[in-house]
Sequence to fold (602 residues):
Amino acid sequence: MDVAQVLPVGVRAHRPRTPWQLFWARFRRDWAALGGLAIVSGILALAVAAPLLPALNPQQQDLSQRRSPPSAEHPFGLDHLGRDILSRVAHGARFTLGAAISATLVALVLGVVVGLVGGFWGGLVDDVSMRLAEVMLAFPYLLLAILIVAILGPGLASATVAVGITKIPHYARVTRGAVLSLRQSDYVDAARVIGATDMGIIVRHVLPNAMAPIMVLATVGLGADVLSIAGLGFLGLGAQPPTAEWGLMVSEGRSYLFEASHIIVFPGVFLMLLVLGFNLMGDGLRDALDPRLRRR
Amino acid sequence: MTRYFARRVIGLIPLLLAVATVTFFALELTPGDPAVLIMGQDVTPEGLAEVRRTLGLDRPLVEQYLRYLGGLARGELGRSFRTRTPVTEDLARTFPVTFTLAVGATVVSTIVGVGGGVISAVRPHSSIDYVVRAGILTAVSAPVFWLGLVLIYWFSIRLAWFPVSGWGTLRHIILPVAALSAFPLASVARMTRSSILDVLTHDYVRTARAKGVSGSGVLARHVLKNAFIPVVTVIALQFGVLLGGAVITETVFALPGLGQLVVTAVLARDYAVIRGAVLLVAISFAVINLLVDVVYAALDPRIRYA
Fold:
């Protein structure tokens, strides 16, 4: 039976709180972080809902009305080919956000595995992976992504893979650092004494404790990945026409900056909002996960 | 110090060798034959063989690699597959543009960023602090290409203060540098603010106050000097971001820099140009990082290099 149910009304049970509850108690008092969460959730909902709304057709052209400004019928106006910008922004959330999430997942999974293996067992894997990370970090980030796109050929999938690969060293280093300090800790020794296997120790003790810095890195990283994916799209190295990716939309609209500036305004504003949302969430996560680093 | 410096310079060689090797072999993995890309689809087999021979693509891979490294040692980077001009000439033409942008943005973001961070940290939770922090959040979230277009729209098209594109005079540089500075400026301001707030909690600051040093005296002599060390790290890290961001900024403002060169080369599969440009940027990045370490030593006597 739950402890709270046997206590008189008005008396709160002093239950030990889980780390998740402690985290949420701090996070929910941070209005900026909640705002970020709201923005990201809103755009995520838009991405999920877009194909379910038949009125939002991102490819339908009305050439007679091309470049017409926002109106009641088309709240965001029409682009240079007479396509509804609201529909394209809504569908574009799928590409930009989807690609950024995929890139982050690629980097997170591979980076964490490399960092865990290298940090926990050391040896040759550790030496090789850390040298490789050093070489990768010798390239400015976007340039390395462009180099990988050069190998794979331009496209949204290549851009996603490229952005993901360039981020692997970041996750590997953070994970390795956390693992190295945890490996020395008493509870890992204790677990080993009672006969836990290496795998058991990693999964049950090391990974959960290394999770906080990795989560913060991933959230802030999502914002940066959105910018990289859109940036590659803008350069013509990411998503290709007629995809409604936000960076590509801005690139296509730039020739009409003078006579139809609304074409670049909306995808740009949504890009900025999404990145802002991830940044606010990331700051809030860092504060809530590590109160010692609380912003003053 | 001199010995440390010499060792670091020598230490660059294996790193750059690794970078050169990675770029060489990575681009060899690409599907598609550059000779076909150069000549187009309807080329005779004889014409194709001719192109391969002149580019040296018919030689074994190991030989191509060794020739490439040999060329590097002599300061040669081969010729562009597409235009046949030496890659070093292309780089000499475009690198100054990119470097000017990156240095300009570093200067602007250091001055404005440190200034903003100090103003914000001196009066935490004042209205000016909130304005600065809101500005920081906006600037780190704005895509550089979009910001560039917004600047062009207002300052070139609407107000006609600056030219839309082109290169050569100071008026051509201002808008691109402004767009490129936004992100590093915000990062520098953020680090300055939190670093000062951190230093302010230290005992030596209280001691200085207790013995009667004025507010601005404490700030100048005790706080700023100590708070500046992590800021230097951020500035150095930002330089790499800037070299990448410059690629996008150059495209927005149609500037004849390294970024344009690289993007055109990627779309045309011009391996020789891609390799040269990537190597040059990696070298400048490594040199900057080395210089930063030297600045550290000057700022913080606790850091000793054996």
Notes: The mean pLDDT of chain A is 85. The first helix of chain A runs from residue 3 to 6. Residues 194 and 258 of chain A are 72 Å apart (CA to CA). Chain A touches chain B at residues 131, 134-135, 138-143, 146-154, 223, 227, 230-231, 234-237, 247, 250-251, 254, 257-258, 261, 264, 268, 271-273, 275-276, 279-280, 295-296 (CB under 8 Å).
